[in-house]
Amino acid sequence: MALNLSKLPRTITVEKRGGVPVVRMIDQRLLPYDEAYIETSDWRSVVDAIKTLALRGAPAIGVAGAAAVMLRAWEPFSSDSQESLDEAADQIAAARPTAVNLAWGVDRAMRIVADLQVAGEGPVAVAEALFSLCQGMIAEDEAVNRAIGRNGAALLPPGCTVLTHCNAGSLATAFYGTALGVVYAAAEEGKLRRVYADETRPVGQGARLTVWELSHAGVPVTLICDNMAASVMGAGKVDAVVVGADRIAANGDVANKIGTLGVAVLARHFGIPFYIAAPRSTIDTGTATGSDIVIEQRDSAEVLPRPIEGVEVENPAFDVTPAELVSAIITETGVFRPAQLQDALS
Ligand code: MRU
């Protein structure tokens, strides 16, 4: 297998053009057919990209949250109707509720604002510091993902076939990915045979994004419908399941893309290890258990594009896998059993 990560795009970057910051994001709504980018200096466009899933994936929206605060800080504050930085930060953090990384990214930016204001710095210094923060977060995210990848690859047997759900890949992060970071590291070590990608109804992050990303990177990938996972596992074709996370509660319960719970139940039934790969920033010690996690409910049109009279549609974007079904949580600082999480974090 010839792994070629240089064929993968940078999911989100920040740069200055003519002294003005520009946030550049690959528009994931158009993949796998068109590779196009959103370029903006307007924080509201970043919020819109997060809400519409143009940019998605927990670590990526964490960076985008900080980048949106940064763009707001660069805008001159000229009218009463314009949101203050605090109001904008609240709106940015509320763009999606489940992935804790979004609020974490916004908080990180707003802590810098508060520290610099206490130190008596003016708006220009604050805006410059936030620009540096965003560049730093992008580099940090890739480094964190590469460490997750190394830690996770060590758990996989030689000649391993991995099943994954949703897209916890490079596209869901600044670069490299969490669950797919484990895949890439295993491929770099010559341990990986193949990836099975669940298509991931209703939005198709597996069918549209994971298979595009893996095939670009040179990783052998087989796309399956979500309802094929049981038979593929039952046929003995899967050695490990590796998925990402949007929020990990203090007790080790994990919120991730809808359908993850079903995959975890199947993995337990067939005796296949079920791994979560996520940065420490996805662990939310302020949330005690999975039942405390707010699950985003999305538009019914994602499930049923043309309504049918008399038919109700439910569309929760995430579900919660109980800690007891999780074999281990792979982070940048080590691999933890869910029950060890509290001790590991203290
Ligand atoms: O709705 P999405 O596409 O943002 O959901 C993404 C997921 O559920 C991912 O698995 C999770 O964010 C981990 S990404 C490294």
Structural features, described:
This protein has helices at residues 43-51, 58-74, 85-93, 100-118, 123-153, 179-188, 205-217, 229-234, 260-270, 341-345; strands at residues 12-17, 20-26, 37-40, 160-164, 192-198, 221-224, 240-243, 247-249, 254-257, 274-277, 283-284, 318-321, 328-331, 334-336. It is an alpha/beta fold. It folds into 2 domains: 5-145, translation initiation factor eif-2b, domain 1 (Four Helix Bundle (Hemerythrin (Met), subunit A), Up-down Bundle); 156-345, Rossmann fold (3-Layer(aba) Sandwich). The strands form 3 sheets. The protein has a 7-stranded mixed beta sheet with strand order 6-5-4-7-10-13-14. A 4-stranded mixed beta sheet has the order 11-8-9-12, covered by helices on one side. The relative contact order is 0.12. 5-S-methyl-1-O-phosphono-5-thio-D-ribulose binds next to helix 2 and strand 9. Residues 53, 56-59, 99, 166, 168, 172-173, 178, 205, 244-246, 256-257, 317 line the site of 5-S-methyl-1-O-phosphono-5-thio-D-ribulose (MRU).
Q: What is the assigned CATH homologous superfamily of the largest domain?
A: Translation initiation factor eif-2b, domain 2
The coarse silhouette is globular
- Give the helices and strands as they follow along the chain: EEEHHHHHEHEHEHEEEHEEEEEH
Biggest sheet: strand arrangement: 6-5-4-7-10-13-14
Output the CATH class name of the largest domain. Answer: Alpha Beta
**How many domain regions?**
2
Q: DSSP helix count? A: 10
Structural class: alpha/beta
- Overall pLDDT, averaged? 96
SS strand fraction: 15-25%
Proportion in helices: 25-40%
CATH topology of the largest domain: Rossmann fold
Q: Outline the low-pLDDT stretches.
A: none
Task: Count every beta strand, where a strand is a DSSP E run of 2 or more residues.
Answer: 14
Q: Tell me about the biggest sheet? A: 7 strands, mixed
Radius of gyration from CA coordinates: 20 Å
Bound molecules: 5-S-methyl-1-O-phosphono-5-thio-D-ribulose
Distance between the termini: 41 Å
By CATH, the architecture of the largest domain is named: 3-Layer(aba) Sandwich
